[in-house]
Write a structure and sequence with these properties.
This protein has 303 residues and is of the alpha+beta class. Helix content is 29%, strand content 37%.
């Protein structure tokens, strides 16, 4: 290293700044004010960027929604239909709606209609759907009635929870709660659920067959891809709502466990969470545990 060069550079630097007073450090108050001003300006920039992104997203969502509404209103009867997509996505093509992923929607007064991915259907009027292919589940909550048509027959609900599956060979109707009327070329079938047994009606080109099975069978598993959410005021009500979605009754292993559940409030909500995961979250960290079997959801005290 050249020491004489360094010494010369230092001397020139000292001469350059000779006579210039030292910079005064700003006060803590001035520093805080400057920081606050810069932070406020930065937050404004971030907020503006976010608003632009939401505006772009809103424009795209509005376009999709308009397409769906137009496809519904183009039916011959020109009846207005209030359809709201809570989860999933739907495309429209000349009145035929197709789910591109598991979907949950509300149709006028019926707030819980679920469809598997790839389901194709048409809305005939506010109380009637034509199912072309795929799976559809309806929980009317006794607020309205609905009909589901297919090439194999017509399903009319009477305040119930039911599903309809259609492929090129047959239509399958499952009644988990309440009853439906199934009208086909093979006659009229009144299918009613009883206790925890679901009534199953299968109709094809040659005949109609009826049998019973547990309401919690795997036939219903696909509906949990788009759960409705569980938002009750108490743990007891929330547990019952989840159990209903699973098709099982709630059983308490002891009176102590029942009293603990009945007296516990639930201040949160379990949104877009499948029912088994919702149970885990509901009882996590409590003195209660659960066992889920095909015939019951049993609640007991932690041992």
């Amino acid at each position: 290293m050249n020491s004489s060069f360094d010494e010369k550079s230092d001397a020139e630097m000292d001469a350059m700044f000779d006579g210039i007073p030292l910079r005064r450090e700003p006060s803590s108050e001035a520093t805080a004010q400057a920081y606050a001003k810069v932070k406020a300006e930065w937050q404004l920039v971030v907020s503006t960027r976010r608003n632009k992104r939401w505006q772009k997203f809103g424009a795209v969502a509005a376009t999709v929604l308009v397409l769906v509404i137009i496809s519904v209103l183009q039916f011959p009867n020109n009846t207005a239909v209030d359809m709201r997509i809570a989860q999933g996505a739907i495309t429209a093509d000349h009145g035929v709606l197709t789910t591109t992923q598991p979907t949950r929607l509300a149709l006028n007064a019926i707030e819980d209609i679920r469809l598997s991915q790839g389901t194709r259907f048409e809305i005939i009027n506010p109380a009637e759907i034509r199912l072309l292919q795929g799976d559809l589940y309806v929980d009317t909550k006794d607020r309205a009635n609905i009909k589901v048509r297919s090439n194999f027959g017509i399903v009319s609900d009477i305040g119930t929870r039911f599903l309809v599956s259609v492929d090129q060979h047959q239509m399958t109707v499952g009644v988990r709660q309440g009853e439906v009327l199934v009208d086909s070329k093979h006659g009229l079938v009144n299918a009613a659920a009883k206790n925890q047994l679901a009534r199953i009606v299968q109709i094809n080109a040659t005949d109609a067959q009826v049998h019973t099975e547990l309401a919690s069978s795997t036939r219903w598993d696909w509906i949990h891809a788009v759960p409705p959410g569980y938002r009750q005021a108490t743990v007891a009500q929330t547990t019952l709502q989840i159990a209903d979605d699973l098709g099982v009754p709630v059983v308490y292993a002891s009176r102590s466990a029942e009293l603990m559940v009945m007296n516990a409030d639930f201040g949160g909500q379990l949104t877009d969470i499948e029912p088994r995961r919702a149970l885990d979250m509901l009882f996590h960290g409590s003195e209660l545990e659960y066992v889920l079997n095909p015939d019951a959801l049993t609640i007991s005290l932690v041992r």
